[in-house]
Amino acid sequence: MPRKPRSDVGGYVQHVINRANERVKIFHTEKDYQEFESLLEEACERYEMRLIAYAVMPNHWHLVLYPENDGNVGRMMHWLTTTHSARVRARTKSVGNGHIYQGRYKSFLVETDNYLLTLLKYVERNPVRAKLVQHAEDWKWGSAHRRIFGTPKTKTLLSASPTPLPHGYRRWVNTADSPLELEEIRRSLNRNVPFGSLDWHIKWNASKGIKNK
Question: What predicted TM-score, i.e. pTM, was given to this entire model?
């Protein structure tokens, strides 16, 4: 069988997601979310990671990362999940009660084109699809809120997208995703395959010495 492309490479945008064990709720209060955002900021600084978008949900989170170097995503995710797990266990006095997260994170590469914009909207609209808020920017624990309502200091957590955001960003991010786009993103997530055009897939495979079918 042909091997799958190695996804933890520098110079490619990646969508990363991790869920709580058995999908239980791990973020209950504002302090819980603030603690994770603080750790996320520290993780980005430690591993020189560019964060394009994110959404922290009650029992999982999405990150859109743009690493410069091979292996940085794996190193960052290991530090972030283990550190966060330790903080949660210490705060809730539940050390020894099992895993906080369901296991290793999932991720897939994304073409820096309209595919990236599709993914960015998908991530930032996650709270809307979950019926937690009516508008993407209303969810305080995501990049849409930070882009629109953040201070110059808090906005520094976010790096510029390699594909510029559309004019009228606020209106755009509150336009519903198409069913086809949602299906394509979920397919990439479930199968761990890159999200992009056919030509981009071919170039990606060729760069890694993988034969196209």
Answer: 0.91
